[in-house]
Amino acid sequence: MGNRLNGFGDCSIEVERACPIELTLHIIGGKWKGVIINILSKKDTRFNELKRLIPGISQRMLTLQLRELEADGIVKRKVEETIPIKVGYSLTHQGESLTPIIQSMRMWGNDYISKNE
Amino acid sequence: MGNRLNGFGDCSIEVERACPIELTLHIIGGKWKGVIINILSKKDTRFNELKRLIPGISQRMLTLQLRELEADGIVKRKVEETIPIKVGYSLTHQGESLTPIIQSMRMWGNDYISKNE
DNA sequence: CTGTATCCTCACAGATACTG
DNA sequence: CAGTATCTGTGAGGATACAG
To answer: Nearest-CA residue of chain B relative to A31?
Structure first.
């Protein structure tokens, strides 16, 4: 499993019920993770396909974010041993269980935009 | 309204539907914002009360996070002109509309913990 | 095609002290 | 009680080059 939140175990009685929130936020809160999960929830996607679908992301960041999502059990990585090599990414079952939250956030964001623009 | 996401307008056709997700993540993704919103969703809370309920947060960070939430229209600030002065914080209507998402994240986080521990 | 390896910077956050 | 003012450090993230 991936990194724990700093001080995750330091939760006091008062805020202990808030910690799962911080944990979730930590797992999906990376700069590009929301987009990545959203894309993978629609279809399995290869590395370069992701790079193309997310303008502005660097190879380095795409790799790092995918590695973290993988370590946290959200994303599956499947290597096709062809030449050239192909790597497909998809959501794990746990990753798929995140999509309702992502979709809620998408709807809330759209609503927010229409109300504040 | 608060800061826009960097490059929020740079969304390509492919990912434009993902941008509201990034926006939402940006608004609630600050290090302490999830906890703050969660606490305020239960009851209006004063500054020092928040500080007490969130061990580990500094006065500086509490102020900054509250200011950002206020600028983004999530939190309301109400000054009681007593001596000593008292300042109450509460969720706006828009802030309250976030609580289902926060609660989903809390449930997902708890589920995640029980499955990965 | 799918990555590592470096180097760099700058915004975010911690610590501490001070104030109306 | 509810903040501001500094100073400082860390690490997330960007740019670029190289590699199997």
So the answer is: B22
Is B110 within 8 Å of chain A by CB?
Answer: yes
Cβ neighbours of B8 in A, within 8 Å: none
Q: Residue B90: inside a domain, yes or no?
A: yes
Tokens 């209006």 belong to residue: B44
A10 contacts in chain B (CB < 8 Å): 55-56
pLDDT tens digit sequence for B13-31: 333 334 788 899 999 999 9
Contacts of A50 (CB under 8 A, 6+ apart): A36, A39, A62, A66, A89
pLDDT number for residue A8: 36
What is this structure's pTM? 0.85
Q: Is residue A19 part of a domain?
A: no
| Overall number of domains in chain B | 1
Q: Is residue B15 part of a domain?
A: no
If pLDDT is split at 50, 70 and 90, which confidence band does A117 have? confident
Supply the range of the domain harboring residue A82.
31-115
Rounded to whole angstroms, the distance from the CA of residue A39 to the C1' of nucleotide D6 is 44
Structure tokens at A94: 């746990």
